[in-house]
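Hi Y.,

Following your request, here is the sequence exactly as I used it, all 259 residues.
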Amino acid sequence: MALTSDQIHQLAQSLWQAEQTRQPADLPSALHPELDEADAYRIAAAKLQLRNRKSTGYKLGYTSAAMRLQMNISSPNYGVLTEDQLVRGSELPYDELIHPLVEPEIAIRLNEGLPPAARHDRNSILAARPEFMLAIEVCDTRYPTYRFKAVDNIADNSSAARYVLGTPIAIDPDTDLADLGVELWIDDELKDQGVGANALDDPLLAVAWLANRLGQENKCIQAGDVVLTGGLTKGYLVQRGQRVANKSAGLEAAAVRFV
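Below is the corresponding structure, written out as tokens. Let me know if you'd prefer a different format.
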């Protein structure tokens, strides 16, 4: 049975309050065991309305096998990015978050929008004149721990919190993002390594997955939208004072320090 509008609003309000106060909320699935994916996205949309900030794109969750295994989640999902989540500068206040977790990613920005009705593939994404950037996603679940069901994660906007972007680079048909290697550094320690293929075999295919998933809701990726295509390694918790960098040979790193 679908949740009522009042229940959707109450759950969204609880998650929004948790984000603002940094006091974790109860799991929606514990309060409503019947919660399904459709209602979870309704909760996320209601929370987005409470946030009342301009959308800047989307984030994909669990596009890599490593992240699905780490979080015991079987399939990808998506959340919405907003303008206040973009980290401008080299520092991020640690106290703005509850338990920040970082992932190295490849971000894609489209210079042309995608129609919602078409069946998208790598070629249609290339036709939208994309560019890519090294990125760091800073996740932050609004629950007590990173133990939750897939529907809880969707309701919480896929744990979207902050994101860091590197320098944009144009993509052409010969660009091979699947083989692009990245390294996640925390301070002076190499924590993990991944490749673009960890994001649904190719970050451009991850964008195509998103475009097709949004099309089911008659939505589309707009020109200028940024898409975080998913963590290329496991996620790692960070502490105040640590510097996180996503590095790739020959490219300028994306980096941020938690202060």
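The radius of gyration is 17 Å.

Thanks again,
Q.
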